[in-house]
Amino acid sequence: MSNSLIWWGIIIYTVASLFIAYLSRSGKEVSMSGYFLGNRKMNGFVSALSYSATTYSAFMMVGLAGLTYRGGVGALGFEIIYFAGVTLVAFFGPRFWLAGNKYGYVTPSEMLGDRYDNKLVAVVIAISTCIFLIPYSAVQLAGVGYLVEGMTNGGISFTTGVIIATVLAILFSFIAGIRSVMWTDSLQALMMIVASTVVVLLIIQGLGGFSGFFGSLEANYPDSLTVPGNGYWSFATFLSMTVPWLFFSLSNPQVSQRMFMPSSLKSLRGMLLGFLGFGLVYTLVSVLWGFSAVIMFPGLENPDVATPSLLSSEFVPPVLGIIVMVAIIAAAISTIDSILLTLASLFARDVYGNMKPNVSESRQLAIGKFVMPIIAIMAFAFAELQLDLIAVLSVASSAGLTVTVPAIIGTFFWKRGTATGVITSVAVSGLLVLMLELSTLKPYGLGSGVWGLLVSTLLFVGVSLLTKPPVEKAEEFVTYINTEMKKSLKSSKNANRETVNKGY
Amino acid sequence: MGKREVFWGVVSCIVILLAYIIPYTFLTNVANWYGSFLLWVGVAFVIIIINLIITKDWRS
């Protein structure tokens, strides 16, 4: 692809995004919930697009296509298990939303700290989140560098790509906080879904339509249509990879924080259903790209080259290829800026806010804005250094964050859970995940996420039973949520009945 | 949790379990588009329908 076309693509995307970010401003935000949660007034459609853009990083188009190329249809199963796990939002979404509105929580860890009646809970979870998510952002940044360098054959260097991504991520999160992140995310998501769907249709058409496409796979690469297939997707691998992702919507604060933001339960529903529709298309497109590469470019040494090879192929017009490439870069940025914002809110609210007594909202916000570029620059430095440890932490991020799941479930459903139980389970299991990843040990063939979740569940339950629960707070919190859940669903049923009675 | 929530929670768990089990048992030798590919796409649609039902009473 010509470098000047790619540069033009990046420039147009940057200008359009900055314009949208600028438009998204809504007066001067002085509160934490205004800047980080959009005043809890986000509508369903934008929330859905942004949720998708945040979840589906560059990993999706490059990594999932590569995973399909390497191991076949198991990659679809892996992504569908994650997709099914988002159903957790249907159960936890209204509970997060009700609790956020009542108690004014800005971060999920703040909620856990309050519910378990111990600030240290919030501090420990916030710090462990930073340990895993900063390296994850670094690897996303490095991904942009590799992609740009690869597609221009070195015409645009790795470092230039990483700098562009870092600067844009800082700008998008800085201009208007979550509002500019959500609106630029939406632009990216729309651009990606349209362009990538057109690409997949063109390629399948070029390969003889649906029957020709699958006919070729069935005849020449039958292993790619079954699991374990060529052996890549053994059941142990499938289980190890899917378990952390099954709980992603709860364990990763950059998405679970989104459950505080919708303006109403109706908007929350819009976010959930919109994401599911979008996610299914995205998943199918990525997997079909991987299959297309199996047919068109068998024998690639590095499966991550599958996507760039497809985009440069004869079936894809160069301009469309550029649009998708820019959309992939944008996908990495849309993931990083959301993480950046979430980490800044965690640091300002849960670490700084709890360490120093009586810190005002505006002071917390100032600290949050101050640390945002620092976190981005740390991620940039990690990306440039390309340390092995960073790669390990990044891979471990989904597994490392999964260890908070028992405590999150306990927040709403187990009054007997205690702060000591949460701190022990998160700290010990987080360390266990790190040790397993560093030593590349897989006891019984199972990955760190499975062990992390198992051990954290046992520790949370065991230690909680041995320690004293926050009886009063737990009773008040859980009773409030249960009563409101009944009330809000009952009142909407009554509203339905009235509508029917009135003959509308 | 109300009875309705528990019911749909159990249904969701069963669907997810089947998404793990069936491809690794009944479909290991079905190397066609209507094997694991179709099953997992079908699971995605069932999940969307379940979410539609669970959230149908959510109003503003």
Explained architecture:
Chain A has helices spanning about 5-25, 30-35, 45-55, 60-70, 75-85, 90-105, 110-115, 120-150, 160-175, 180-205, 210-220, 235-245, 250, 255, 265-295, 305-310, 320-355, 360-385, 390-400, 405-415, 420-440, 450-465, 470-500. Chain A is mainly alpha-helical. Chain A has one domain (about 5-385): Sodium/glucose cotransporter, CATH 1.20.1730. The longest helix of chain A is centred in the last third of the chain and has 38 residues, at about 320-355. Chain B is mainly α and about 60 residues long. Chain B has one domain (about 5-55). Helix content of chain B is about 70%, strand content about 0%. Chain B has helices spanning about 5-25, 35-55. In chain B, helix 1 runs antiparallel to helix 2 (about 35-55). The longest helix of chain B is centred in the first third of the chain and has 23 residues, at about 5-25. Chain B is elongated. The interface of A and B includes residues 90, 222, 239, 268 and 485 of A. Chain B: Keywords: Membrane, Transmembrane, Transmembrane helix. Chain A: Keywords: Cell membrane, Ion transport, Membrane, Sodium, Sodium transport, Symport, Transmembrane, Transmembrane helix, Transport. Chain A: Belongs to the sodium:solute symporter (SSF) (TC 2.A.21) family. Chain A: It is found in: Cell membrane.
What is the chains' assembly state?
A: heterodimer
**Poorly predicted residue ranges of chain B:** none
The number of domains of chain A is: 1
- What is the element string of chain A, with H for helices and E for strands? HHHHHHHHHHHHHHHHHHHHHHH
Q: Note the total helix count of chain B.
A: 2
SSE class of chain B: mainly alpha
Helix content of chain A: over 70%
In the CATH hierarchy, the third-tier topology of chain A is known as Sodium/glucose cotransporter
N-to-C CA distance of chain B? 21 Å
The major β-sheet of chain A equals: none
| Average pLDDT level of chain A | 90
CATH class of chain A: Mainly Alpha
Q: Work out the number of β strands of chain A.
A: 0
Largest interface between protein chains, with number of residues from each side: A-B, 51 and 38 residues
What is the CA-atom radius of gyration of chain B, in angstroms? 14 Å
SSE string of chain B: HH
Helical stretch count of chain A?
Answer: 23
- How many strand units of chain B? 0
Keywords (chain B): Membrane, Transmembrane, Transmembrane helix
Membrane topology (chain A): Multi-pass membrane protein
InterPro entries (chain A): Na/Glc_symporter_sf, Na/solute_symporter, Sodium:Solute_Symporter
Family (chain A): Belongs to the sodium:solute symporter (SSF) (TC 2.A.21) family.
